[in-house]
Amino acid sequence: MQGLARTSDPITSQDAASTEKSAQESAFLKLFRERGALSDSEAHEILGLVSHTPRIKSLVERGLLKYAGYKKATASGGMSRVFVAVMP
Question: Angle at the Cα of 28 (from 80 to 63), degrees rounded to 5?
Fold first, then answer.
């Protein structure tokens, strides 16, 4: 479930990819509003997404999520930034 389409794809494929991207972003935003502070990895795991698509970045750029100011350890031993929803 990626929601990506090439510019050479038919317009119907591009529209479907755009709709899927919007649905994923809505699911991310709802999750952050309900659960509070989460890392990108945690959000993907909770939503059952295998690939890490740039949904967090898009929501941050639009002012809907913000960096919480700290990081959490990931399952692989790395560190992941934690984000929170910006409440309207």
Answer: 80
**Residue 32 contacts residue 85 (beta carbons within 8 Å):** yes
Phi, psi of 71 (to 5 degrees): -125, 160
pTM: 0.71
Sequence-separated (6 or more) residues with CB below 8 Å from residue 73: 79, 80
Cβ count within 10 A of residue 56: 22
pLDDT tens across the length of the chain (88 residues): 344 555 665 565 444 444 445 788 888 899 999 999 999 889 988 988 876 667 788 889 989 999 999 999 988 899 999 999 998 7
**End-to-end alpha carbon distance in the chain:** 29
